[in-house]
Each structure stands twice: as C-alpha cells, then as structure tokens.
Amino acid sequence: xxxxxxxxxxxxxxxxxxxxxxxxxxxxxxxxxxxxxxxxxxxxxxxxxxxxxxxxxxxxxxxxxxxxxxxxxxxxxxxxxxxxxxxxxxxxxxxxxxxxxxxxxxxxxxxxxxxxxxxxxxxxxxxxxxxxxxxxxxxxxxxxxxxxxxxxxxxxxxxxxxxxxxxxxxxxxxxxxxxxxxxxxxxxxxxxxxxxxxxxxxxxxxxxxxxxxxxxxxxxxxxxxxxxxxxxxxxxxxxxxxxxxxxxxxxxxxxxxxxxxxxxxxxxxxxxxxxxxxxxxxxxxxxxxxxxxxxxxxxxxxxxx
Amino acid sequence: xxxxxxxxxxxxxxxxxxxxxxxxxxxxxxxxxxxxxxxxxxxxxxxxxxxxxxxxxxxxxxxxxxxxxxxxxxxxxxxxxxxxxxxxxxxxxxxxxxxxxxxxxxxxxxxxxxxxxxxxxxxxxxxxxxxxxxxxxxxxxxxxxxxxxxxxxxxxxxxxxxxxxxxxxxxxxxxxxxxxxxxxxxxxxxxxxxxxxxxxxxxxxxxxxxxxxxxxxxxxxxxxxxxxxxxxxxxxxxxxxxxxxxxxxxxxxxxxxxxxxxxxxxxxxxxxxxxxxxxxxxxx
Amino acid sequence: xxxxxxxxxxxxxxxxxxxxxxxxxxxxxxxxxxxxxxxxxxxxxxxxxxxxxxxxxxxxxxxxxxxxxxxxxxxxxxxxxxxxxxxxxxxxxxxxxxxxxxxxxxxxxxxxxxxxxxxxxxxxxxxxxxxxxxxxxxxxxxxxxxxxxxxxxxxxxxxxxxxxxxxxxxxxxxxxxxxxxxxxxxxxxxxxxxxxxxxxxxxxxxxxxxxxxxxxxxxxxxxxxxxxxxxxxxxxxxxxxxxxxxxxxxxxxxxxxxxxxxxxxxxxxxxxxxxxxxxxxxxxxxxxxxxxxxxxxxxxxxxxxxxxxxxxxxxxxxxxxxxxxxxxxxxxxxxxxxxxxxxxxxxxxxxx
Lengths: 305, 284, 352
Prior knowledge:
The complex is a heterotrimer. Chain A is mostly helical. Chain A is built from 12 helices and no strands. Chain B contains 11 helices and 11 strands. Chain B has helices spanning about 45-50, 80-85, 95-100, 105-120, 125-135, 140-145, 155-165, 185-200, 215-220, 245-255, 275, and strands at about 5-15, 20-30, 35-40, 60-65, 65-70, 70-75, 90-95, 175, 205-210, 220-225, 230-235. Chains in contact: A-C, B-C.
C-alpha cells in the first residue's frame, strides 16, 4: 500500500530526476487523464477484447471456421450449437467472426507500420533538407493526395492482383501522404527552434538530429492520427474485401463475409448483419480511443475530424 | 453624479478542481471621471469589465448585490433589454484590433452596423455618421478606410477605428480593456489622447483597465488596485505614490524612476494574506 | 522557406506582378499534379499482369496478328515514348477501347457518369442542408443534447461500413417496409420512357413532364442518396462545429456582442461569415469523397454509375476501362480542389 503511494508520488513528481523519470511521469499523467475519459476507455476495452479474441481464437471458437455442413446451412441466430447461425455453406458464423479478428488485426498492424513510417521518412526529409528535395517530395505527396483513395487502392489492387497483402499495400500507398504532410510541418517548426541550433553547434549531424530530436517530437501527433485513421483503414480493407479484391475465400475476412451474405440479405439477414456489426464495433472503438488520445496528447480542439 | 455603482461583484468559473473565483466581492462607483483598474494578469480586472456588460458566458457565473447603471440594476434586465444597454449606454474597446475587428467584413460595414443597431436610420445616414466619427478619431481618408478590410490597417489605425465604432452609438460609459497594450509605443500616446478628448467632450465615464501603473497614474483620475480578484487599494491618481498597501508599494518600487535612480530594483514579495483580505469598499 | 529566400536574391530579371506570379505558380502546380496522376495510372497500366496485346487480339492470335497489334500499340518504343503516346491520347479524351464491349471507354464514361453525378449531388445537398446547421448549433450550444447528438451521428458515420449500412437500409426500407424502390435507377415498367438529355433521370423526367417516372426515379434514388448524405452530413457537421468553436471564441465576436447585437446576429452575421471559406473547401472535399464513396454504394444498389463501371471492369480485367475511370475521377478531384481554391481567393479578403 505505502509502496504503491510512493510509486505514485514518484510518477507524479514535478521535479523529475532523470530523463527516463520525466518520460515515465508524463506517460503516467497522460494515462491518468485518458483514464478519466470514459468513452476512450470503452474503446480501449473493446480493442483489448479484440486482441484477446484473436490470440485465443482456437479456444474461443466453438467450431472449425472452415468446416462446411451443407445440410445445416443458413441456420438463424440462436440455433443450437450456432449462436450466430450459419452461412450459406453451413459454416459457424461465430467461429468465422472470431478468426476474422486475426485478419483485421493483421491488416491494421501492417498498414499502421508501413504508412506512418513512410510518411514520417518523406516528411522529415522534405522538411529538414528543404530546397529541391522538399519541392519534389511534396509534389509527389500532393499527387497521391489528389487521387481519391478508394479508387487509387482499387487501381493498385488491379495492378498487383487481389489478395490480402496487396490490399494492405494498396491501402498503405494511399494512406501515407497525410502523415508526410504532418511530419513536414512539424519538422519545419522544430528545425527553426533554438535548441536545434544549439545541438547543431555542438556538432550533431543531420541524421542524429532527425532520428534523435525530430522524430520523437513527431511521434505523439502521429499516434493520434494513426489511431483515428485506423477506423478508415478497417473500413477500406472491409470495402476491398467486400468487392472481392481483398482477402479471398474461404478466408473469414469480415468484409468478404458481408459480401457473401449479401445474396441472402432479404431472407437470411443475419449472415451479412453480424460481420458488419463487428466491423462497426472495432472501428468505433478506434475512433473513441483516438478521440481520447487526441485530448491527452494534442489538445487543440475537441471532437472527431 | 454616479453613473455606475457596483456592489459586491463576484465572477465564478466552475472547474474540475471546484469553483474558481476570478473576481471576489468587488465594489466601486464611477462618475463622469476616468477610473483606472490596475492589476497583473489574472487579477480579475478584465473580468470585472466584462461582468459589467454581462458578457461572461456560461458556465461562468456573475453575482452581485447590484450593478446599477444610472439607477437601474443591470442584473435584473432581460437579455433583450441588456442588448439595448450594450453599445448604446456602455461600450468597450478591447486589447488588439487585429482580433477585435471582424476580418472578413469591410470596416465601414462594421461601424455602420454599430450605429444602425441603436438608431432608426437609413444606410446613407449611417454612412455619414460613420465618416464623421472616423474623422473625429483623426482618420484622414475616411472614405478609403470605410471600404478597407481590417488586415489592411495598422494597429494604431485599427484601435482608432475600434474607438470610433464603439463611440458611434453615443454611450455614457466606455470600458477600455488594455486599449494600448498591443500597440507600438510610438502610437500609444496618440490613441490615448484621442480617446481622452472624446470622453471628455462627451461627458462620459471611462473605466481604463491596464497592467501599466505609470500609464494609469498619468492618465486617470482615480485608481483601483486589484490583486487576486479583490480590490486591495483605492487612491487618487496623483497621490498614488503615497499608496499604503504593500502590494501597491511593491509594484511602485519595482519600477525604475528617473527622480530616484537605484542600482537594484526591488522584486515584489507576495504575501498570501493579501488575497484573503476583504475587498476595499469605495462607497463614499 | 529556403526557396523564397533564393527568389528574393535573384532580382535582376523583371519582377512579375504578384497576382500573375501566384496564378502561374498555381497553374504549374496543377499541371504537375495532373501529369503525376497520369504517370501513376500509366505505371499501373504497365504493371498490370495482363498482356494488352493478347487482350485485344485474343488469346489465340497468330504470331503475325500479335506483332501487328504490338506495333500498333507502340509497345516496341521506349517506355518514355509510350508515356507520351498515352498522354496525347488522354488529352484528346481517348482512353482506348473497352475490352469488354469493344466501345470507346470515353463513351462509356460519358454514359455512366451522370448517374453518379446525380447521386452524389443529391447526397451532398442533403449533407449541407442538415450538416451545416447541425454543426453550428452543436458549436454554439456546446455540451447540450444537440451537441451530443451531433457527436454520435458523426461517430457512427465515421465507424460504419457504408456498404453494410446500405445493405441494412435496403433490407429495412425495401425488404421489410417497402417504402422505397429497390436496386437500380428505375422500376422495370418505367425504363426507356423519357429521352436522355442530361443523363440524370430526375432532371430528364422533370424536363419531359413525366411525373410518374420522376416519382419512381425518386423512390429509387432516395435511399442511396440518403446513405451518401449521411456520410457527408457526418463530415460536414463535424468540421462546421470545429470551425465555429474556433470563431465563437474569437475577440471580434465579443465586439459584436458589445455592440448590442442579438446572439443570432452574432452567430450568423459575424462568426458564420468567417467560416464560409473553410466550409466551401470542406464541401468540395466532401463532394469529391462522395463521388468516390459512391463506388461501394453503387455496387449495393446496382446503380449504373462510374463506381460500378470501374469495379465491373476491374473484376473482368478490363484495363483500359479501369484506368480511364480512375483518371476521370482523379481529374474531377483536382478540379474540385482548384475550384475551392478559387472561391477561397474570391471570398477571403486576406487572400488577395
């Protein structure tokens, strides 16, 4: 008990004793204010649930997700053994939903690794180097921004071929430009600040300045942006899956499941409804969490944009 | 003659840590005079000015025994009646004309709007009045200024326009909230002189809010010193140097003076007791 | 930054008038963006795992035919030359032949585009009419129930897969309640009654005075248009709210109140006037997004617009059609951007 209170005091100090101490303290304070935001905690809870669901899918799923049972097809909600019913091939929808969470997380993680990193690289280089590099890189960014995202993704998938990895690539290719713009803007402000001049006078080279001083400062706004973009990425991936350009059957990708259920929408509505609700829940969770994170990390204005 | 009589004014803001009192039990009167309110930022001086006009937006709360304007208690008025008071009877000039003028409206439209709100008149009439008013604040090519947008004006011009706009409905009281703080030192004096001349000529009361003790001492008749939401001292401007309260003394001693050169200026030492003491009443 | 410093150093040449310079800069950046757009579609076309010769000449073409087509397409030339061929084709409005129906792609696009335009326009109108007032009220009454409602509307809009919501709408309003027409633009009995003039059925039927057709067309468009309208409403209301919040805390709003203006006049006469420019940009963007968002909506509602066209072409590997459609949508995007930029210059006195 007393141990816990001293930890708390140590974390809430106004006078940190080391850099690590300061970092932990600001992290803890951020966490405290995030914890005060009920909606953000609901979002976080859902995402943790999703993660657990994906991790323990084999234990949670009541059936094999690809086991067909044609005699038992299109069972309604709540039928014995199939809580969420079965699809047109008699596969258990709940099990497919549970395994589908793995695909969703896979897509989201990959895009979240590729797009912001690419954007950060382009943006900081453009901002730091300036001159022609800036003009050329930003022009390329503008060109990508000028494209409608989904249509560009469609064209890329057309070029690369349908499939989940190509869908990830296509979404990343359309998602990086806003990060680049943001990173460039931040770099320009940071580059002009006095402490960067001080570091430069101490002999730090551009690479050290970018990686050790500029990137860490871009991170927090980047995280907020990524979290808020996650919902869009999930929706885009589901859209590609729905069009048959993302994950291929028999994969239990949620968008593809909707596409499959679409044919029976009027008579067997749950087949398409249930995976849609899953997509909605997860992207809602990302939006709620992103909103809360923005309030903590980047409190310029309220509400989602 | 008393124009404005404020008794026990409180301005409160609910925050997560509880209620924050920005102004705590302030009382004063204003006649046809120039009353200075001095204090550091956060002392509640601007809030006092805005509370008189009932401009504090919810969740902020304004409480007072009364705020009497020529006998009527402003706190009893409906919002609609209050709108007739604003501009027409009490007006306010704010700190920075860069922000206090609407950037996408022509200056002429903004001035005419102030006139038309309180007078049954045609646009031609309003236009004539506006031109006169601009000339009264020593703007030479008033015609051009009427057509211009605020960003095309310098700070000093902007503030004179602001004064013209606020005086056009012919109010009885002008609240000037740091009217020269955002201006170049070279034009501060000029703007003050214009404002002073107009206030005198029209027999108005002026509440001059500032953080600049010297300026207030020089420019006003009477000075209220505010600290932490309270009035700690009231004195006549020409006798400011006899002020007794340690805060006022501290402020005075922290300023360099030509007639008393010193090697080191004093640093203001704050006493927590100041913020707990009751406001000084000014009922004479 | 470094660039502008350089420009002030190089002064000896006759300086251009600032407005002329800004127009030249804008024009050249538009040109570069368009060029880049075409370059990307060109590269996509090259990378596509489809042999353009085989898809024209047929799988079992003889060697002579194959080579003839190969030369006709200019595939023997260096890539850069091919790109210029492609450019000059596009500039002339030639996107090649559709491999599916052997008609010029440009003709196809001209045929399907009005359907998308009609849908997106109706959607964005709904978004503006409902979204702008909602955003303004939410900002002015921050924290009130209407602000909460606006927040929920936006959150749901940002989180809901559009194609799924469309399916649900179809299920409820068509399948169960029967309030609206089903998929497609017209019921089968109403097809081919009105002559095509604008390609937009609501307009065409109104022009022809065929009100029965108009009613049927309306019952078909209302659901997909509301769907798109909802998404643009979510976006527009959210942006309006954040713009208004910023303006309402500005000092000139206090000035207006000090003058004695009513709150309504302060909001609409002063604060709203200041967000018009930003709002135009948002609406243009939202419109562009709807043209794109209609891809999935069109599939759900079997709406014969450009979204369906691109998707169908994609699934049947009709390269020219896909690229043609992509280029057209991209160009519209750029044009909307230019348009909002122009309006910005007109409406904001500070931009001159």
